Amino acid sequence: MSTPEDSGAVPADDSGTVRALDQVMREVERHVASGGWDGPVRVFALVRTAAAIEAEPALAGQLPPETMIAARLDPDHLTAVEQEGLPPADDLESLLAGLSWPPTVHGAAVVVERVVLPSSAEAAMPADPQEAVAYLMAHPERQDVRLAAGALRDGPRWCVLRTRANDDDAAVAGGADLVPGLTGAVAATLL
What we know:
- With about 190 residues, the protein is an alpha+beta fold.
- The protein has one domain (about 15-35, about 40-190).
- It has eight helices and six strands; from the N terminus they run ααβααβαβααβββα.
- The protein has helices spanning about 5, 15-35, 50-55, 65-75, 90-95, 120, 130-140, 180-190, and strands at about 40-50, 80-85, 105-115, 145-150, 155-165, 175.
- A hairpin with a 4-residue loop joins strand 4 (about 145-150) and strand 5 (about 155-165).
- The two termini are about 30 Å apart.
- About 30% of the residues are buried.
């Protein structure tokens, strides 16, 4: 398992909880990246590994040895559990609005892909939704990005971002304020 130091991005808030959130968000993004681009929205529950093992001792036999070691060394260590069978939703906002988590889940994460344009190009975007999509897809300055946004019940939020143009684990950026609307929407699922 890598740490923020390994990837060159150390969270400004060096608390154990924020470091653990940065680490798990990078792991989630790498997991999704292993499947390539143009994937669906994916949702993950985040649990403190040591607490999960204490509550469910059989889990210890299902986790890799390095995860067990990390959990013993760091009480803030997080494990991501991908959620399958998500309810149908017309858009990301509706999906997130329909999610809720039991108290045993310490946080949540979502991974989405988006197309972004420089702000100068957004002014010329057509108002018609179908025309806007065509404009986005054909624009020469478009950037495809993958965002992995997560939040914990006790407050910390973190997002990591990978661009298709720089599709390399070493080029993944991270920060608490990269996409505050998305991390805020994830945090709202925990209320």
